[in-house]
Every structure is written in structure tokens, then in C-alpha cells.
Write a structure and sequence with these properties.
Keywords: FAD, Flavoprotein, Monooxygenase, Oxidoreductase. This is 3-hydroxybenzoate 6-hydroxylase. It comes from Corynebacterium yudongzhengii. The protein is 34% helix and 24% strand. By secondary structure, it is of the alpha/beta class. A hairpin with a 2-residue loop joins β17 and β18. α1 packs parallel to α9, α2 packs across α9 and α9 runs antiparallel to α10. Bound molecules: flavin-adenine dinucleotide (FAD). The site of flavin-adenine dinucleotide (FAD) has 30 residues, from α1, β3, β8 and α9.
């Protein structure tokens, strides 16, 4: 395997990364490629991802290419011909986003779908090849500044021994329940009433789906259903997402969430209003596990102090609608490594300054992705007249690739441009949408205004 050529700007800089998900592994790779001395600690006994497929838009593929592993990722995954949005009730295709030549020219990289474990393994192997040390089965108990550096307390879970490690900088890539995020803000996850079922099955053996070369997204009232190939077309990945009536009821009434929310009974009921093409796929889903869709409020500062920062889901866990959570973590990694390497090149490596610059560049962008993700999800799930208007807008967006107009801000990101540092207002919602209010915020506002559960409007 070959990775990008290593450089030496960060030689002698000791960096500890907490968390070995896609974010932490990408961070280890980007920094080791700039010559840093990186040690990553992962709590679990092995590097492992839960779930199956990931969509990596061109904004993510560009990061993989910078690190020299874009082609390998493409070989491990699948490059779809297009993405088709279909109305979940009629199965009509309302928008086809073609990923051919014009797309490549416009965005400068492919749209990739890849198995989570394949991407994580590739990042872990590449980071190791670049010289990073990735350690499993070690839990980071804390990290505090200590003079000109940071002291990290690490527990070896195999023998319960505890050691102190010194570093110049610590990056908390420790996921949505991050220990280090808590040092900035003591917030809670924002639960949506949506739940995801996932499943993979053999694609060539599937009479209805064999030969699939697209990402298909059926969108409909209170639900959606995604399908795409993985592993060069060997596997079919499917994700079924729906609003849990039991969870919604407890959210609206402010009562305790019943244990049976999102269970198999609800799953079976959730798609009865959708087209047969979706209903007949339910039997291919895993029934023993389901995932609640939650995010957190955007955070406008990711810096704990001059030596500690959070990135990845620790800083910006999104709802999954823009398929960009893992991509944002990869962009964070490249921006961090780039800004630090350039400062070192100029002979001005001041870690506090680098951390603040990373946060100022990244927080507005990721905040916008989190907020637009919520909006995009609501648009997918509308009913009644809104559904017909949405469908017509999607049809219009397909004419002459007009949809580029909506996707450019997301997929045309270049870390070297420092665009959000120069103009943080790029993180705002586009003109005309500034007044849009997330459903759950609307609920909260009405409740605070004294509305009774029976009067609440979503
Ligand atoms: C249904 C669904 C579909 C999605 N689809 C997409 C998609 O198509 N495209 C996309 O880009 N994103 C997608 N995402 C989002 C994406 O999966 C996440 O944003 C991304 O994986 C986050 O990576 P991370 O490394 O920041 O966090 P995590 O994957 O949560 O990794 C954090 C790691 O830190 C470890 N850890 C935590 N605390 C400690 C500690 N104290 N010491 C040591 N280790 C610790 C944990 O064990 C864990 O391994 C999706 C998410 C969901 C739920």
C-alpha cells in the first residue's frame, strides 16, 4: 500500500489522540504524514465500526486523495453512477444526480460508498504506515494542561494499570459522549423521534436488486429508505429510518420514553403507507438492533484550552441526512494538520493559536452542516401538499444539473482556502431560510410558552 509522501514540518511534536473511530484514525494519518509523533488511544480491544455503509461525498474523497489513499478506498468501495431520490409512496424518481464526467469536473473527486470497517481499516493501516502508534484497549481517563504541554492519564484495560503520558497537544476525537466536550459545555444529545434499522445482504444473489449501480433514496412521510452497493457490488447496504410513534408521543407530552419505542412492531407498521418496492425489502434488515437518530446543538468553540481541542463527533455530531459526519471528521483532520504544518513552516508554531484557528475555520462550517442536516431531514419527511411541492422542486433541480447550486457549499470545500476563517458568515443558513425553526426547537418553545401537550404543533 502506498500513502502520500511524508513531510517533516511537525517533527518533534508529540500529539495524543483520544478515540480510534474514523475521525481519530484520519487525524493520526494526517498528522503523521506531516512528521508528528502521534499516539492514539482507543477504548475498545479492537478498531471496530458499528453498522455497515458510509457515503463519502467528493468533499471526503478529496481528503483521502490528499493522504494518498483515494484510489485504494475506491477499490475497496463502490463509485455509484448516480443518486436517485424517489417518492416513497409512488416510487417515482423525482431527482437523479448524475456522478459522471460533469460531476467529476465540477467537484474534483468521485462520490464513494464504502463499508465502514473497510474505511476504518484503511485509515488505521495507513496511519500506522505513516509512523503513528495506535493503541487499543486503553481508556483515557483525563487530560490536563501541564506547563507547556498536556498530561494524559491512560488506563490499560487489560491489566487496569494507569500511566501518565506527556504530549504537546491532545485531540479529543472521542465521539458524541466525549469527555473533552464536557470541559467546554455540559450539554445533552438532542433526541429526534427517528430510528434507523440497517442491513446488508448479498447483492448478486438478490433477484430484485442485482446489478444496482445507484444510491437510491426513497423519501416519504415520516420515513425514508436508502439502498446502495458496497464492496465492488458484492453487498447491498440498506437503511430504513422512521419516526417512532411512541418516542414522538413521549417527546410531545414530556413523559418518560417507553422501553419498546422503535421496536420491531413499530418498524413493521412504519412503512405500510409506502410503495411495495420498499415494503418487500423490510425482511432484509437486521431486527436485533436499531439506532436512535440524535445530534447535538452546534458548538461555536471547540478549544478546551491552548493544548486541548475536540473534533469529529465530539465537536459536531450531526443527524445523518447530509451523509457528512465522517467526512467532517476527515476535513477536521486535514485542516488541523495543514494549519499546524504551515505555522511550523513559518517558524511560528504556537499551539494555542493553531487550535483557535482550526476552531474558527471549522465550527461555522460544521454548524451549518448540522443545521442543514436537520432541515434536509424534515424536507424528506413532509406529507400532504408540502410533499407535492417538494417533489416538484426536486424535479426542477434535475434540469441542467441545477442541483449543483444547492450542493456546492457542501461538496466544494478546500481546507487550503480558509474560507470560513475569512468569512464566518458562510456558516449561516442561506438567505430566505434564516427564520426556519427546527421541529424540536418549536416544541420546546411552545412548551416554555405554557402550551399544553394537546395544543403542541409540530
Ligand atoms: C445511521 C447513520 C448513518 C450515517 N451515515 C453517514 C454517511 O453516509 N457519511 C458520513 O460521512 N457519516 C455518516 N454518519 C456519521 C458518522 O458515522 C460519524 O459522524 C462518524 O463515524 C464519527 O466518527 P468519530 O471518529 O468522530 O466518532 P466515533 O466513531 O464515535 O469514535 C469515537 C471513538 O472514541 C472512543 N473513545 C471514546 N471515549 C474514549 C476514551 N475516553 N478513551 C479512549 N477511547 C475513547 C470510542 O470507543 C470510539 O471508538 C452516519 C451516522 C449514522 C448514525
Amino acid at each position: 500500500m502506498s500513502i502520500a509522501e511524508k513531510t517533516t514540518e511537525l517533527q518533534g511534536q508529540k500529539i495524543v489522540i483520544v478515540g480510534g473511530g474514523i475521525g481519530g484514525a484520519a487525524g493520526a494519518l494526517a498528522l503523521a504524514l506531516r512528521g508528528a509523533d502521534v499516539t492514539l488511544y482507543e477504548h475498545h480491544p479492537e478498531f471496530k465500526e458499528v453498522g455497515a455503509g458510509l457515503q463519502i461525498g467528493p468533499h471526503g474523497v478529496k481528503m483521502l486523495k490528499k493522504w494518498g489513499i483515494g484510489q485504494r478506498a475506491i477499490e475497496l468501495g463502490f463509485v455509484p453512477e448516480n443518486m436517485q431520490f424517489r417518492d416513497a409512496m409512488t416510487a417515482e424518481t423525482i431527482l437523479t444526480m448524475d456522478f459522471g464526467e460533469k460531476f467529476l469536473e465540477h467537484y474534483g473527486a468521485e462520490y464513494l460508498v464504502i463499508h465502514r470497517s473497510d474505511l476504518l481499516n484503511l485509515l488505521v493501516e495507513s496511519a500506522t504506515e505513516a509512523g503513528a502508534t495506535l493503541v487499543n484497549n486503553h481508556h483515557v481517563l483525563d487530560g490536563v494542561t501541564d506547563g507547556d504541554g498536556v498530561k494524559v492519564t491512560v488506563k490499560n484495560r487489560a491489566d487496569n494499570s494507569i500511566s501518565e503520558v506527556e504530549a504537546d497537544v491532545l485531540i479529543g476525537f472521542d465521539g458524541t459522549h466525549s469527555l473533552f466536550r464536557k470541559k467546554i459545555v455540559d450539554d445533552d444529545p438532542v433526541p429526534s423521534a427517528y430510528v434507523a434499522y440497517r442491513g446488508t445482504s448479498s447483492l448478486p444473489d438478490d433477484p430484485d436488486m442485482a446489478g444496482l449501480t445507484s444510491v437510491i433514496g426513497y423519501i416519504g412521510p415520516r420515513c425514508h429508505f436508502i439502498q446502495y452497493p458496497l464492496r465492488s457490488g458484492e453487498l447491498l447496504n440498506q437503511v430504513a429510518v422512521f419516526q417512532s410513534p411512541r418516542y414522538l408521543k413521549s417527546l410531545v407530552e414530556g413523559t418518560e420514553v417507553p422501553e419498546d419505542w422503535g421496536n420491531n412492531d413499530e418498524f413493521r407498521q412504519a412503512f405500510t403507507h409506502t410503495h411495495e418496492k420498499i415494503q418487500c425489502r423490510q425482511k432484509h434488515m437486521w431486527l436485533d438492533q436499531w439506532w436512535q437518530m440524535t445530534d447535538r446543538e452546534p458548538l461555536d468553540n471547540w478549544v478546551v484550552n491552548d493544548r486541548i481541542i475536540v473534533m469529529g463527533d465530539a465537536a459536531h455530531p450531526p443527524l445523518q441526512y447530509l451523509a457528512s459526519g465522517a467526512v467532517m471528521a476527515m476535513e477536521d483532520s486535514e485542516v488541523f494538520a495543514l494549519f499546524a504544518a504551515e505555522a511550523a513552516n513559518r517558524g511560528e508554531l504556537d499551539w494555542g493559536k493553531v487550535l483557535r484557528e482550526v476552531s474558527v475555520e471549522r465550527a461555522p462550517r460544521c454548524g451549518r452542516i448540522q443545521t442543514v442536516g436537520r432541515l434536509w431531514g424534515e424536507l424528506w419527511h413532509v406529507d400532504g401538499i408540502a410533499r407535492h411541492v417538494r417533489n416538484e422542486l426536486f424535479r426542477q433541480a434535475g434540469v441542467d444539473n441545477y442541483w449543483f447550486h444547492y450542493a456546492d457549499w457542501l461538496w466544494n470545500y478546500d481546507p487550503e482556502a480558509r474560507a470560513y476563517l475569512k468569512d464566518p458568515s458562510l456558516g449561516n443558513l442561506p438567505k430566505g431560510l434564516e427564520d426556519w425553526e427546527y421541529n424540536l426547537h418549536k416544541l420546546e418553545r411552545q412548551r416554555k410558552d405554557g402550551a399544553q401537550p394537546s395544543d403542541l404543533v409540530l
